[in-house]
Design a protein that fits this description.
Mean pLDDT: 89
Strand order of the largest sheet: 3-2-1-4-5-6-9
Protein name: SDR family NAD(P)-dependent oxidoreductase
Family: Belongs to the short-chain dehydrogenases/reductases (SDR) family.
Order of helices and strands: EHEHEHEHEHEEHHEHEHH
Bound molecules: nicotinamide-adenine-dinucleotide
GO molecular function: oxidoreductase activity, acting on the CH-OH group of donors, NAD or NADP as acceptor
Low-confidence stretches: 301-308
Number of helices: 10
Number of domains: 1
Largest sheet: 7 strands, parallel
Keywords: Oxidoreductase
Number of strands: 9
Shape: globular
Organism: Alterirhizorhabdus solaris
Radius of gyration: 19 Å
CATH superfamily: NAD(P)-binding Rossmann-like Domain
């Protein structure tokens, strides 16, 4: 698809990966519809992209509401006459144990990380089909779409579902012989963003879940391990995720795995994929390494540690 002169709509674009994707879209000559639940941050993002020379519309939308996502699509088409690229990016991470995920937290994460994608597809894809010009739909999933870690009960479940839903979109477009719409699923590893402060977008959902969230060492340690990785400066930057994702869109590639460049990561992802395909569970040896990491992270996690 020709980026210049096309229109992108990006959810969760007030910060992190979403904002980096919006910057990349502007750099590649696209008009951009920015959307987020945080109004002040959204306005700051709109200003900064306008200063970059972008033709930008900002629309506050909570992606957990199908009505608000539908209103977002209407506003985008009203302003620009079309949308060529939808990026379902908004999402959040919280750790939890499989047997102790509060229902409020489960509902929030599944609504935000999974149902939001269905809302986006329902609101935008019929418009793209009617347009008939080259279009593309992107899901920002996660490495957690193909792996499971201790403490990742809710997040991995949501990202596996996001992967399946987006693969289903790809399959349905192919079966219906709709060639004008491409699909890409980005599955980054840990990225340098503000994802470890999920309370910025949904304080109510997290307040309900707080007690259970920090009761167990696994949950504390997994959250601390992610923070440590970001603080160490070793995590990939959001700009690089955006660049690789746009390259995948340009090449009409279904999968892009930013951050899986290291040999160990690639070997791990491959062993998981091969193990799953062959019906051989690859997790026990991987789990040993993870449990050692948890032990290391636990020593740097204060008991009862709450997010910054
Ligand atoms: N940072 C990572 O390590 C990482 C790794 C893999 C995948 N991801 C995925 O990338 C995506 C973006 O995350 P990020 O790292 O940029 O985090 P982030 O917290 O910096 O950005 C997420 C954005 O989504 C917005 N948002 C939250 N709830 C919303 C709602 N209900 N409606 C609309 N917007 C909402 C937030 O306000 C925020 O601006 C998420 O789907 C996340 O799961 C992140």
């Amino acid at each position: 698809m020709e980026f210049r002169g096309s229109v992108a709509a990006i959810t969760g674009a007030a910060g992190g990966i979403g904002f980096a994707l919006a910057q990349e879209a502007v750099r590649r000559g696209m008009a951009v519809v920015l959307s987020d639940i945080r109004e002040d941050a959204l306005e700051a993002a709109r200003k900064s992209l306008s200063e970059l020379g972008g033709d930008v519309l900002a629309v506050r939308a909570d992606v957990t509401s199908s009505a608000e996502v539908e209103a977002l699509a209407s506003a985008a088409v009203e302003r620009f006459g079309k949308v060529n690229l939808l990026i379902n990016n908004a999402g959040a991470f919280v750790a939890s144990l499989a047997w102790e995920t509060p229902e409020a937290q489960l509902d929030w994460i599944l609504d935000l990380n999974v149902k939001s994608i269905a809302h986006g597809i329902r609101a935008f894809v019929p418009r793209m089909i009617a347009q008939g010009d080259p279009c593309h739909v992107v899901t920002v999933a996660s490495a957690a779409a193909i792996t499971v870690y201790p403490g990742y009960a809710t997040y991995s479940t949501s990202k596996h579902a996001a992967l399946a839903l987006t693969e289903a979109l790809y399959m349905d477009l192919a079966a219906e012989e709709i060639d004008s719409i491409g699909v890409t699923i980005a599955m980054p590893t840990i990225i340098q963003t503000d994802i470890m402060s999920p309370e910025k977008a949904s304080p109510a959902a997290l307040a309900l879940a707080e007690g259970a969230r920090f009761r167990h060492r696994t949950v504390r340690a997994m959250e601390q391990m992610m923070r440590n990785h970001v603080a160490s400066g070793h995590a990939m930057g959001a700009d690089e995720v955006a660049r690789q994702t746009f390259d995948a869109i340009a090449g009409r590639r279904l999968y892009v795995l930013p951050g899986h460049d290291g040999e160990a990561d690639v070997a791990k992802a491959t062993s998981i994929a091969v193990g799953r395909a062959s019906g051989t569970n690859p997790y026990p040896p991987i789990l040993d390494a993870i449990l050692q990491s948890i032990g290391r992270a636990e020593t740097t996690a204060a008991p009862g540690h709450a997010p910054a």
